[in-house]
Amino acid sequence: MTVESLLTAFRTIDVQDNGRLDLVGFTLVLDELGLIWSKAETQERFERADVNHDGYITLDELQAMLDAL
């Protein structure tokens, strides 16, 4: 996965163009990137990636989570 593919997937799903994704958007981005996890795994990774605990994932948070895989 390239930074370009991550950015494209993020921007495609971030239809409100607010620079953040909720759990549904996070799941859709993962699907776009070919990362299919169980609902429990996705929820857990979302919660870990949401470092500021605001209930959303930013592009930076998503990138950091993916880099840690």
Taking the sheet with the most strands, its summary is: 2 strands, antiparallel
- What fraction, in percent, of the residue positions are helical? 55-70%
- Strand arrangement, largest sheet? 1-2
Distance between the termini: 12 Å
Question: What structural class do you assign from the helix and strand content?
Answer: mainly alpha
Low-confidence stretches: none
Overall pLDDT: 94
Describe the structure.
The protein has helices spanning 3-13, 23-32, 39-49, 59-67; strands at residues 20-21, 57-58. It is globular and about 25 Å long. The longest helix has 11 residues, at 3-13. By secondary structure, the protein is mainly alpha-helical. The protein has 4 helices and 2 strands.
Write the layout of secondary structure elements.
Blueprint: H1 3-13, E1 20-21, H2 23-32, H3 39-49, E2 57-58, H4 59-67
Antiparallel strand pairs: 1-2
Helix pairs in contact: 1-2
Quick overview:
The chain is mainly α and 69 residues long. The chain is 59% helix and 6% strand.
Q: Keywords for this structure?
A:
6% strand, mainly alpha
